[in-house]
Amino acid sequence: MRTTPPFRAEHVGSLLRPKRLLEARAEQQAGTITAEQLRNEEDAAIRDAIALQEEVGLESITDGELRRGSWHMDFLYEIGGIERSQDNLLSRFHNDAGDIEFRPTKPEVKSKLTLDHTIFGDAFEFLAANTPKGTPKLTVPSPSMAHYRGGRAAIDESVYPELDAFWADLAEVYREEISRLADIGCTYLQLDDTCFAYLNDPTERANLNARGESGDDQHLVYINTFNEAVKDRPDGVTIGTHMCRGNFRSSWVAQGGYDYVAEPLFTQLDVDAFFMEYDDERSGTFEPLRFVPKDKLVVLGLVTSKKPQLETKDELKRRIEDAARYIDIDQLCLSPQCGFSSTFEGNSLTVDEERAKLALVVETAAEVWGGS
Fold first, then answer.
1. How many CA atoms lie within 13 A of 161 on its CB side?
2. 239/231 Cα distance (integer angstroms)
3. What is the per-residue pLDDT across 319-342, written as a single tens digit (0 to 9) for each?
4. Which 8-state DSSP code applies to residue 153?
5. Could you tell me which residues come within 8 angstroms of residue 315 by beta carbon, excluding any fewer than 6 positions away?
6. What is the CA radius of gyration of the chain?
7. Confidence band (pLDDT; 50, 70, 90) for 108?
């Protein structure tokens, strides 16, 4: 077993919101309770989430993203210069029953990007103060997410006539954020990214080409910006990135294996660990893992967070063995394929089913790699 992150048994971050927290959020929006009262409800729910993670045996502990409405938008709107557009995005998610339309707000860059405060700093400090054992992990969106949704059209040309200056300022914001987080004790940071997985899908690349951008090599720009963002991270800070193809109410957007982006992604991206969605055939084969360098780890997201059905240990072990044909098994860890609640609505599971999935990850990892 590993004593430093990523651990053999991991999870991506978000957890199902308890009913009372959802009620409190609606009450605060309706004006029947104060923001302070909502925060008290969040505090209580996060303490319970920490206890759940510790009880099942996880060593990395998140706050479940319970204070957020969205896994990424809450962070992006805290960056100086990024504002909510009057127009909403349209994303079409898919599941076994059909399609779901999701219309989140759209971020637009209206002025020079700045970091005016430590984003999620208070949230991390609360998590750390209430985690008696284990390693607190903070999850934030990767720099790519500030561009992918709206692209060039969402960046004011009078502010950034050339995108090189935008990428440079965006990376600087992240460098400062990572430094500030390290100053308050954050040593495990996960930068979540859907873009790298989306761009394996020819449809997604075509969508970028249609809006006047280069879908064929956009991932190379994102890799460079990511590397600039993390290049000055303090010693002792572990950086991971999670890649998935969409996660909203048990539905998904993109499909296709990692083959298109694999070689530059694995050989160039400056991370310690790749958290990878691998719960069904949409994720492709393990063959792209042959490009992963010997000094990096891969967290296999084999347990689906989208469905309540529980995988078997034998099934998970067989898939770990299959992955080990392309990468040393000592470079592998295990997790669910994504969070359980990337937005506040959550996936179609109960808290008990979520707990069973997390416990399965811990128990299987102990049997594969050893542990008490």
1. 1
2. 11
3. 999 999 999 999 999 999 999 999
4. G
5. none
6. 19
7. very high
Task: Please name the residues in contact with 289: beta carbons below 8 A apart, sequence gap of 6 or more.
Answer: 266, 298, 323, 326, 327
Neighbours of 278 (CB within 10 A): 25
The answer to whether the beta carbons of residues 295 and 270 sit under 8 Å apart is no
Nearest 5°: CA angle at 238, between 227 and 2?
A: 140
Residue in the block written with tokens 């075509």: 206
Amino acid, single-letter form, for residue 47? R
Tokens, residue 104: 């989140």
Q: How many CB atoms are closer than 10 A to CB 10?
A: 30
Are 359 and 316 a contacting pair, CB within 8 Å? no
Q: Give me the pLDDT at residue 200, please.
A: 94
User: Do 67 and 88 form a contact (C-beta atoms < 8 A)?
Assistant: no
Identify the pLDDT of residue 19: 96
Neighbours of 248 (CB within 10 A): 22
Instruction: Tell me, yes or no, if the pTM score tops 0.70.
Output: yes
* Phi, psi for 331 (deg, rounded to 5): -95, 5
Side-chain-facing half-sphere of 269: CA atoms under 13 Å: 33
Strand partners, 94: 99, 252
Residue type, 337: Q
Cβ atoms of 175 and 130 within 8 Å: the answer is: no
Beta bridge partners of 273: 240, 297
- Which residues, including other chains, have CB under 8 Å from residue 142's CB and lie 6 or more apart? 191, 192, 193, 195, 222, 226, 229, 241
Distance of CA 91 to the CA centre of its chain: 18
> What is the distance between the alpha carbons of residues 233 and 227, in angstroms, rounded to a whole number?
10
Residues written for the chain: 372
Under a CB-based contact definition with an 8 Å cutoff, are residues 220 and 264 in contact?
Answer: yes
**Average pLDDT of the chain, as a whole number:** 94
